[in-house]
Design a protein that fits this description.
Blueprint (H helix, E strand, L loop, with lengths): L1 H27 L1 H9 L1 E8 L5 E3 L2 E3 L4 E7 L3 E5 L5 E4 L4 E4 L4 E4 L6
Antiparallel strand pairs: 1-4, 1-6, 2-3, 2-5, 5-8, 6-7
């Protein structure tokens, strides 16, 4: 009888550890699940220059940040850049020093 109790205890410990790791993985990937379901990529755009830049004809002042969502095949046009623009996504940071450029997601990958 004690043997069965030991097997049951070991099984409960293994199941508890498995449930813990499953919950941890789901919590860490919840952002990716949300992005996949909405088919939008949240962006944070930061202007690190001393001059204002234009984002889709809206002005963003020096050393300011703004949050936007970008859908597939939607374009964000950034112009009048004289310094560095930092674009942050959920997985990467991009530092861009071009005067004018466009940000586009094609096929949900770029």
């Amino acid at each position: 009888m004690n043997e069965y109790r030991l097997y049951i205890l070991i099984s409960i410990i293994i199941i508890s550890i498995s449930v813990f790791f499953i919950i941890k993985v789901l919590n860490e990937s919840s952002d990716l699940i949300t992005i996949a379901s909405l088919q939008e990529v949240p962006l944070e755009i930061e202007n690190n220059s001393e001059n204002a830049i234009l984002i889709n004809d809206r002005e963003l002042g020096p050393h300011e940040k703004t949050n936007m969502n970008l859908r597939q095949n939607e374009k964000i046009t950034i112009s009048n850049n004289a310094g560095t623009v930092i674009i942050r996504t959920f997985e990467k940071n991009y530092k861009i020093k071009l005067k004018s450029f466009e940000v586009v997601i094609e096929n949900g990958e770029n």
